[in-house]
Structure formats: C-alpha cells, structure tokens
Amino acid sequence: MLTRLTLATILLTSAAATAAPDDGTVAGIDLPAADTAAKKDEYVLSVNKLMYDRYAKAPDKEGVIFYAYKVIEPGAKTTKFKTPGSEDSAPNLLVIPLPKGGKAKVGDIILTWWQSGSGMKRAIVMDAKDPTRPIVRYLDIDYDNPATGGKDRKTPIGQMEEQLEADSFVKIDKPFQAGSTVACGKTSVDNVIRVSGDKLLLAGFAGRLVVRPKAECVAMPQKPKLKVGQKIQAKWVSTIKPATITKIDPKIGRVWVTYDGMGKDEKALAYGHVIDKL
Q: Which structural domains are found in the chain, ordered by start?
C-alpha cells in the first residue's frame, strides 16, 4: 500500500519530469534557449505549467494556448509570471511580450488576447478615441461562430466589439513578428511565436508547436491589398486552397471567398489568412 509520503513523491517526480525545464528549452522543439524583452509588471502571452505539462507528454499530439499573464521576473532563459492564485514560469521561447505604452489607430492590426474570453488573438482596431484602450474586433475568431457575446450577449463573438485594457496589446507591423501569420508551402497557415536564427517557432492547427525553416515560409500580409473577383490563396481549416474573392470589408478586416471546386458557399476569412499568391 502506498503511504501518503510515497504517493506525494511519485506525484512530484512525475510533475518534475514534464515541467518546463529551467534551461529554457521546449519539449519536442529543437531550438536553443532565448532571452526575452519582457519586463516586470508587463503583460506577456505564454503557456502555463498545467498546459505545458500536458503538451510535454506528447509534443507531436498536444497543442498549447497562449494566455495573458503579468511578469514577476524576466530571466535570461525563463520568465516567471503571475497566474490566478499562484505563479508559473515558462521558457522564453514561449513568452511573447506586450510592452507597456501601446497606442493604436483605426485599422491597425494588433496582437492581444480575447479579454472577455481567453487566449491569444489578433484584432483590428475599430475605434481609437482612446488610443491606449482601443475598441477592437477579434480576427482569430470565426466570423460566423454561433456563440454570442458583447454587451448585449447576443452578438456573434466573431462580430462583437470590445474595448481593451491599457498596456495589453502590441501593433503587428512587421513580417514574421510574433503573433503574425505565415504560410509554409500550401500545407498550413500558422502563427509566429518566435524567430530563432533562420528558423520559425510556430503555433499551428489546434495550437500544435512546430519549427519550420524561415526560408520555406511566406509572411501573410496583415492588411492585404485585394479586389473583388481576384483569384487568391486562402486558408481552409489547416491548409491553403485556391479561392475567389466575392466581398471585402476592410473596416472589419474580413474577406469573403468561394473556394475553387467547392460550390458557391461563401466563407468569411480574416486578414492574415489570405494572400494573392504563393
């Protein structure tokens, strides 16, 4: 029979075997440890210990979600941050800083998190009367998602608007910037987590982490210049397919398409998920 002490030892040993390593590396990811630009008391998007432990047991099968946390102590290889009622740390490879002092303009594409929900999201700025607390629509929620939210709790969550906290976002304005999207061949459209030398650490379908050579990937335009009737390449679930544009609404950062050979049903896609050619 297991004593309480023996059982506790087993549980602690198991946790230690999968916890994020102090050397800054990530299970299943062949990249060296990295530094961070994150600062104390600033927000970061990262992966908590519970999520990391589950991922580390099966890196080829499990995905991760990047949540928002406030930094306690940034380090050379790992960063410590506050979690509800406790604290965690994560390799800097999995830490995306959101520096204080961010200001936005209408039409900007920014990286933040779903602030009435959870998880890292790109968003487009709809109102910037207060540039430090812009009102946005989230791009990385399907436009036609049937779940509802917003102030009236009746607006589809892919169409609702929400005012962000101050110091909770960063503008996406550079290719391969953390949070931006890339196409690697015609097999996927993924979010950049980190550039490491000539390689990219990406979060792909269902949050699965993967490393790709940067040279094999194309930065998806976050504010593409397109026109109705144009033939393009468009995200389809976890792949990319040829499509034709039927409608564009630049104010909300959406492009409606029909996919070649898939009938006349339209699909509303976000900026960052379409490109003129690959």
A: 109-166 (no CATH), 231-275 (2.30.30)
Share of the chain above pLDDT 90, in %: 88
For residue 131, what are its two tokens? 């540039």
> Per-residue pLDDT tens for 5-55?
333 333 333 343 344 568 999 999 999 999 999 999 999 999 999 999 999
Q: Convert the pLDDT of each residue in 190-224 to its tens digit.
A: 999 999 999 999 999 999 999 999 999 999 999 99
* Size of the chain in residues: 278
pTM: 0.91
* Backbone phi, psi, residue 18, to 5°: -115, -10
Angle at 270 between CA 267 and CA 271, to 5 degrees: 135
Per the CB < 8 A criterion, the answer to whether 15 and 73 are in contact is no
φ, ψ dihedrals at 13, nearest 5°: -65, -40
Q: Which of 89, 46, 86, 85 lies closest to 209, judged by CA?
A: 46
- Whole-Å CA distances, 105 to 2, 33, 134, 194, 238: 61, 35, 8, 25, 31
Strand partners, 11: none
- Spatial CB neighbours of 52, under 8 Å, sequence gap ≥ 6: 18, 19, 20, 27, 64, 90, 94
> In the β-sheet with 78-83, what is the strand arrangement from edge to edge?
86-91, 78-83, 67-74, 43-46, 96-98
Instruction: Pick left, alpha or beta for residue 197 (phi over 0 → left; psi -120 to 50 → alpha; otherwise beta).
Output: left
How far apart are alpha carbons 228 and 235 in whole angstroms? 17
As given in the structure block, the two tokens for residue 7 are: 């059982």
User: Hey, what amino acid is at 75?
Assistant: G
Contact at 8 Å (CB) between 245 and 230? yes
The C-alpha torsion from 21 through 27 and 29 to 31, rounded to 10°, is 20
